[in-house]
Design brief:
about 110 residues; mainly beta; 4-stranded antiparallel β-sheet; 3-stranded antiparallel β-sheet; 1 helix; lyase activity; hydrolase activity; lyase; UxaA family hydrolase; hydrolase
């Protein structure tokens, strides 16, 4: 039975959202459309963050909710935490917004 705390919205998604904390080495079952996938968690993942539910090659599109949210900046094996350290977001980096604003103000 799929873990109800791993959310995949569309069958085309290649990431799941963790609705609980995940621990490295844990094996989870993820419901993807009509199928179920087993994934071993590669590293600790905190609530609300994403994990790859399949291997994602560098440059490949990250798909969540059936939509592109960015591109992998490195190979991301299944079970790996997916976040700003390995994804170039379509939406910009909020953690860099203050740096960008500081540059504009100082110019």
């Amino acid at each position: 039975m799929p873990d109800r705390y791993l959310q995949v919205v569309e069958p085309t998604d290649n990431v799941a959202t963790a609705l609980r904390e995940l621990e490295a080495g844990e094996t989870v079952s993820v419901g993807v459309g009509d199928e179920e996938r087993t994934v071993e968690i590669a590293e600790d993942v905190i609530f609300g963050h994403k994990i790859a539910i399949e291997d994602i090659a560098s440059g490949e599109t990250i798909t969540k909710y059936g939509k592109s949210i960015g591109n992998a900046t490195e190979d991301i094996p299944a079970g790996t935490w997916v976040h700003v350290h390995n994804v170039e977001s379509n939406y910009g980096r909020g953690d860099l917004a203050d740096d960008d604003q500081a540059k504009v103000v100082s110019e």
